[in-house]
Design goal:
By secondary structure, the chain is mainly α. It has one domain: Chromosomal Replication Initiator Protein Dnaa, Chain: A. Helices cover about 70% and strands about 0% of the residues. It has five helices and no strands.
Length: about 100
């Protein structure tokens, strides 16, 4: 990998609060996913193929495609908002949300 790319990806990781090596972890936290998405988009915008990006992050190329798909973001965001809305309503009612 070119030094320019390495520096850019490290900067993206730092912006999100962690080291670049951490982005290769299997963590599904929203924070990590957002950082990976930004890295994938950066590399894709510079002509990298989905398989190349996937190999660099130790992921299947279909994971990269799925992560960069705008419809995926809308669905994930809707689920996230719905979950937190239900949690807030339950908290106000004095119940717990699973």
């Amino acid at each position: 990998m070119d030094l320019e790319y390495q520096a850019a990806l490290k900067a993206i990781a730092r912006k999100h609060g962690f080291e670049f090596a951490t982005l290769k972890a299997r963590c599904q936290s929203r924070r990590f996913i957002e950082a990976r998405r930004e890295c994938y988009a950066y590399l894709r915008g510079r002509g990298w193929s989905y398989p190349e990006i996937g190999a660099h992050f130790e992921r299947d190329h279909t994971t990269v495609i799925y992560t960069l798909n705008p419809a995926t973001h809308a669905k994930a965001n809707a689920r996230h908002l719905a979950y937190h809305a239900a949690k807030r309503v339950a908290r106000e009612a004095g119940a717990a949300v699973q």
